[in-house]
């Protein structure tokens, strides 16, 4: 695992014109299939993305909890070594 000083910059993954075009084509197809307007499909996609983001945050919290527990165990071990 890299330290903060060694980590590469994040890839922000900008949305290309082709990706936007494909998204809008899918949105129009879904709107037609479900008998709603495109704005409703876009809002539904936003709800799905918010749910996904929430799940990712929960997963990140679980990972952090595990890491902090491991760090606590290391500190206790080091403290025990210092007392000997």
* Helix-strand pattern: HH
Count of beta strands: 0
Helix content, binned percent = over 70%
Number of helical segments with 4 or more residues: 2
What quaternary form is this? single chain
Q: In one word, what is the shape?
A: elongated
Question: Major sheet, described briefly?
Answer: none
Q: Provide the low-confidence segments as ranges.
A: none
Which percent band covers the strand fraction? under 5%
Q: What is the residue-averaged pLDDT? A: 88
Please give the alpha-carbon distance between the first and last residues. 31 Å
| Rg over alpha carbons | 23 Å
Which class best fits the helix and strand makeup? Answer: mainly alpha
Can you walk through the features of this model?
With 84 residues, the protein is mainly alpha-helical. It is 76% helix and 0% strand. The mean pLDDT is 88.
Give the arrangement of secondary structure elements.
Layout: H1 17-34, H2 38-83
Summarize, please.
This protein has two helices and no strands.
Q: Which descriptors apply to this entry?
A:
mainly alpha, 2 helices, 0% strand
């Amino acid at each position: 695992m890299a330290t903060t000083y060694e980590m590469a910059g994040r890839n922000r993954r900008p949305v290309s014109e082709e990706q936007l075009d494909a998204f809008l084509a899918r949105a129009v197809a879904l709107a037609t299939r479900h008998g709603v307007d495109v704005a409703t499909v876009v809002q539904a996609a936003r709800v799905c993305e918010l749910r996904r983001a929430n799940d990712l945050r929960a997963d990140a919290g679980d990972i952090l909890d595990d890491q902090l527990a491991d760090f606590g165990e290391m500190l206790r071990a080091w403290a025990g070594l210092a007392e000997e």
